[in-house]
Task: structure prediction
Amino acid sequence: MENNIFSISYILKGKTEFYSNDYKILLKKALPGDIVYMDPPYQGVCGDRDSRYFAGINHNEFVEELNKLNKRGISFIVSYDGKLGEKSYGKEIPKEIGLEHVFLNAGRSSQATLLGKSDLTIESLYITKDLVNVVEKIKKENRSELFERVS
Result:
């Protein structure tokens, strides 16, 4: 693991910036050529009842911010909603935004494991069209079990 951490650090050094700030402020800083990865608090598991998670973001405001990024030509990836077993969590990002939507098999849910169940966590990944070729390349490299295209 140490080797992996240092290898990734070497690759990202001078190419990556990390911030802790309101996402709207940070999205304004994005420039064409950047790739923005967003992993907001999951709908359905965040809220006032569970203090481990931020209370969430406003869905409509978030969708509007994604629209703004698209209009500015910013590439982005969003992990936003998903499924656990047969139960779906959260609102999907509207198709009108024009993103590729894939399901990512994230493996066995740790919460389900604690409850003695074996449900798989399926996360939704939304990708700007310009990054779809990257996903297709990953799928061709014998990693196709990770992705399932949404119809």
Observations:
- Residues 107 and 120 are 5 Å apart (CA to CA).
- DSSP finds five helices and six strands in the chain.
- The beta strands are 35-38, 75-84, 87-89, 100-108, 120-127, 147-149.
- The first strand starts at residue 35 and ends at 38.
